Give the backbone structure.
Amino acid sequence: MVEGDSASSTELYALLSSLSGIPIKQNFAVTGSVNRKGEVQAIGGVNEKIEGYYEVCKAKGLKEDQSVMMPESNVQNLMLKEEVVEAVKAGKFHIHSVKTIDEGIALLTGVEAGQRGTDGNYEKGTINYLVDKRLREMAEQMTAYSESASERKNEE
């Protein structure tokens, strides 16, 4: 279950993944709220969240690709247990910080988010290009459905 402000970035990443058709790597725990500008904002309990995920990973068998993604604005608040710090130093556990949703989705998928060009379009093959393309397809389907429903109603 995903809930709370600290999960709002996670919900957005899931939506972007679904719309783009690009899967999210499953070795990440993600926390962070997001504002309407796409900036990942600080959350409470960052140490506890990271340490909790580390403990779960350790209990299931720590692998070298297990990672946490957190708001960059929380980095100054990190005061992790020595065991977690040592695991990070040894490359057995990873902590990534991001400022924006674009940075986060690129990290989670391995595909750049993409910037909007002066022509209003996104770079081909990027997450934002694929999301924009899918949303346009959905809009066209809705328009076609609405028009056919209207025609059926007029025939009655």
